[in-house]
TrEMBL record:
Chain positions covered by the region annotation Disordered: 129-163
Residue ranges annotated for the DUF5606 domain, each copy included: 3-49
Stated name of the protein: Uncharacterized protein
Pfam families referenced in this protein's UniProt entry, alphabetically: DUF5606, DUF6852
Organism: Solitalea koreensis
Basic residues composition-biased segments: 153-163
Domain of life: Bacteria
Domain DUF6852 per the UniProt entry, residue ranges: 52-118
Length: 163
């Protein structure tokens, strides 16, 4: 699943794709059927979906892993307007390690709505380009990284003033 460039904006419903950046902030395109373009100023809270985590009992859960679990469930994903207990039960199935006290029903509704938006898009079946780069760490690449880290720093030239 390729979530590169997909963001959520605080206070705005839905998801957006980053299509550019200017002096004022980001240029975003809504991921709904309208495909409206919006300029968001630099003060707005923008969160990349690939960086979002959900509170867990021991450690935070990556949103992308929850989406993968939801995909494995398939057609059993409830509607966003379903009863709160139905949503909680479903979320406990796809994210059993989540912290039930800190993950609210509104968070679950948001995740379900994001899943419904993303699951019909072509990027759902795409490979994440950053994940393939990370998994292709060859011994040569590791050696090159070590060589870069071990390069000595250049000494500053010092000059003495004539007395």
């Amino acid at each position: 699943m390729n979530l590169r460039g997909i963001v959520s904006v605080a206070g705005k419903p839905g998801l957006y794709k980053v299509i550019g950046q200017n002096k004022a902030g980001f240029v975003l395109e809504s991921m709904d059927a309208a495909r409206n373009k919006v300029v968001i100023n630099g003060n707005a809270r923008v969160a990349a979906l690939r960086e979002i985590t959900v509170y867990g009992e021991n450690e935070d859960l990556q949103l992308i892993n929850i989406f993968e679990n939801m995909s494995a469930v398939g057609t059993e994903v409830p509607d966003v307007k379903a009863d709160n207990n139905v949503l909680k039960t479903f979320f406990a199935k796809v994210a059993p390690e989540h912290d039930g006290e800190r993950v609210y029903v509104s968070d679950i509704k948001k995740i379900v709505s994001w899943y419904k938006i993303l699951s019909v898009l072509p990027l759902w079946g795409e490979e994440d380009p950053d994940a393939t780069v990370a998994s292709e760490s060859t011994p040569e690449a590791i050696v090159k990284e070590e060589e870069i880290e071990e390069k000595p720093k250049k000494a500053k030239k010092t000059t003495k003033k004539a007395e």
